[in-house]
Amino acid sequence: MYEIALSVNACVGSNTRADVAWLISSTESIIPMSFEAIAITPGGGKIGNLVNSAFDGPLIEQATRKLPTGRIITRVVTDFESIMSNVPAGTTLKFAVLPSNAIETGIWQSFLDRESIAIVCHLEGDEIVRSEYFTSVTIIAADPQIAEEFSKNKSMTLDLGDRIVTIYHPITKFVVAGTGPIADALAKAAQGLGWNVSVDPRPSMVAGLTATLSPMDCVVIMGHEVESSSNCLKYALESKAGYIGALGSRKMQESREDWLNYRDITDISRVHGPAGFDIGASTPDEIAISILAEAIAVLKGV
């Protein structure tokens, strides 16, 4: 949901219909809880990715009916869908499809702000007749069972018979703008923390990756090419990332600063460069540890 929030929020703001679909259950819990969701726009356009796009067809077909209420879509995975999705054939999946106008407008901003959210879909058969939404502030008004599960700080789905509850707790996003041994070591170490990691050296891709970052997220810039790495740093500074680290020598830091100054970007106080605590790190793994330690300290306000 967090990944499509920006696009859906724009649709809501322009009074454009968008049906939102997400996975709510699978037999024997074969598929773990996921943040994945898609938004389907009029005409069958799609934003986001859900289970490797293997089930887009029936979900888009449902959305194009433009029903006033949501639906639960049950799908038994076929052999072909199994190949596409890596989900065993015969698995029963259930998806929720809900028109965005049935979702409180402010909830999309809450997703953009990376808040914890609980979505409660009230059911009559396979129809979603009503939906409720709770944040960390309003969860006290929820059913005690839902509030208790919410307090566990774990993303999950709950099937309560007449209600399906989806609880989202955001995790830190870690964007690495660069490639090479240090980038690989950073990705591996950050994944070990349970963070959502993206690695790409291309400024055009970094622009998209940083667009939805929040104060709980991180960006690390590396690279030996001033133009490319400075562009990535510009996008990082335009984001709300809580930690921005820049690898490179003092000379490279100065060159990037000059590049930014020339483009009237003069406040680089958020940039930690050279990135990482000074622990005498020399190997890629040691450098990664020093950077992550600094990032954690900054995020926690230490």
Task: Give a written overview of the molecule.
With 302 residues, the chain is of the alpha/beta class. It folds into 2 domains: 164 residues, no CATH class; 127 residues, NAD(P)-binding Rossmann-like Domain (Rossmann fold, 3-Layer(aba) Sandwich). It has 10 helices and 14 strands. It has a 9-stranded antiparallel beta sheet with strand order 3-2-1-5-4-7-6-9-8. Helix 1 packs antiparallel against helix 4 and helix 8 crosses helix 9. The mean pLDDT is 91.
Mean pLDDT over the full residue set: 91
Strand order of the largest sheet: 3-2-1-5-4-7-6-9-8
Number-wise, the strands total 14
Poorly predicted runs of 5 or more residues:
none
Order of helices and strands: HEEEHEHEHEEHEEEHEHEHEHEH
General form: elongated
Computed over alpha carbons, the radius of gyration is: 21 Å
